Amino acid sequence: MALVAALILMVQSALAQNYRGTPKPTIQDYGPFPEEVKAKLTKNVTKAAPATCGNPAGPCLFYGGDFLYDPFYPSIANGLANDNTTLISGSPYGAAVWVPFTVPAGQTWQVRGLFTNNQSDYGVLDQAPTEPTAAAFWSVNEGVEPGIAGTVIASGTNAATATPTGRTAFGLIEFTIQVEGLDFVLTPGTYWLTVVPQCTNVADPYCFETFFVSDVEYINTKPTNSFGPPEPVDSSFFDSSLFGLSFDPTNGPLGATGGIGGDAFSAGVLGRIAPN
């Protein structure tokens, strides 16, 4: 226990040291993180495997694609803060990335679940002891614009799972944060989703952690394993009172990422197309 406590303090110290001056929300501002320390500490929550969006027969309706750390374009790989933890806290979140997707004309989607792929120190979900289970906040909004949250179509805080994807970057490990058991309908149009992991138990030292939604870059072709209608590029938003940004565009030199990536993000919708 003493060794674990010491390692946790080392990671927390590294977080503080890597937090550069004026708070900024990207991985590029925090990292790199100490991989050799986190390799000994990572505590995975693996209740269920994430849905396979590359399988047309599966339950996936939309997936923006996999995070890619391209050694030829290292400066554009990034991610944005997306969490409610004891380090980045708020109500209902400390920071959230809102990812656009489109329901095509002529289709009606019955949504059963949502997910985002997040790079994290530990990937732990843990609410206060009075709460029943690990959870994530989620929402689907319509009509999001710069500075405007739009209209909430459906939202809540539901039981969630955190499952390693097998990808790593910046000394962090990527986890799929997924909520299921949802039940609402979307008609044709453009929407924005967010799934924000929760780790708010102050008695759990692992909750002093960060999550960053992995970005997706359209360098030469469509993102790996992307599925369904293409994700609208340069249409994501970042919202965080902690970082002083209210539904700020993620892309461009004046956006939340400061021009480092942020064209699209790794997120998805689970469910089925309703029969006509």
The tally of helices reads 3
Low-confidence stretches: 1-14, 16-22, 36-49
- Counting helices, strands and paired strands, the structural category is mainly beta
Strand content: 35-45%
Output the helix-strand order: HHHEEEEEEEEEEEEEE
What number of domains? Answer: 1
**What does the overall shape look like?**
globular
Computed CA radius of gyration, to the nearest angstrom: 18 Å
Whole-Å distance between the termini?
A: 58 Å
The main pleated sheet reads as: 14 strands, mixed
Kindly state the percentage of residues in helix: 10-25%
Number of strand segments: 14
| Mean pLDDT over all positions | 81
Question: What does the model show?
Answer:
It is a single chain. The protein has 276 residues and is mainly β. The protein has one domain (2-273). 10% of the residues lie in helices and 38% in strands. The protein has 3 helices and 14 strands. Strands 1, 2, 3, 4, 5, 6, 7, 8, 9, 10, 11, 12, 13 and 14 form a 14-stranded mixed beta sheet that branches. Helix 1 (2-18) crosses helix 3. The longest helix has 17 residues, at 2-18. It starts with a helix and ends with a strand. Residues 1-14, 16-22 and 36-49 have low confidence and may be disordered.
